[in-house]
Amino acid sequence: HSFPTRRSSDLDALIIDVRSAGEFASGHVDGALNLPLDRFAQNHAQVAPDKAKQIILYCQSGARSGQAMQFLIQQGYLNVVNGGSASAVALRTTRPIRRH
Questions:
Q1: SS3 category, 50
Q2: How far is CA 57 from CA 2, 5, 29, in A?
Q3: Helix, strand, coil percentages in the chain from 3-state DSSP, rounded to 5
Q4: Is 59 a catalytic residue?
Q5: How confident is the model over 23-64, as pLDDT tens digits?
Q6: CA distances (Å), 79 to each of 21, 22, 88, 91, in order?
Q7: Cα dist. 51→15, 23, 31, 68 in Å?
Q8: Which residue in 13, 59, 86, 90 is the catalytic one?
Q9: Fewer CB within 10 A of the terminal residue: the chain, N end or C end?
Q10: Of 45, 34, 33, which Cα lies nearest the Cα of 71?
Q11: Residue 3 and residue 10: Cα distance in Å, rounded?
């Protein structure tokens, strides 16, 4: 079982959790922003104004973050990753999970 190696671009990536506020509060990657999928289209530009910056999206399983990734690609974003789940993104970026 090998762990993914951390990429230098992951260190300054914008991490966005597209789950609901309640899901976010129950545990999210340290430093992640919460932008639920139902508000994603309206609010993505304020959260992610730089279309060249790496963005890592995640949700519970990768389904909602996959939808958000497709949307951002259609909007011209160049470096978007579907990270899957919070635990997968925490592992990839070596950031802890925070609970509020």
A1: coil
A2: 22, 18, 11
A3: 40, 20, 40
A4: yes
A5: 999 999 999 999 999 999 999 999 999 999 999 999 999 999
A6: 25, 28, 18, 19
A7: 14, 27, 19, 14
A8: 59
A9: N
A10: 45
A11: 15
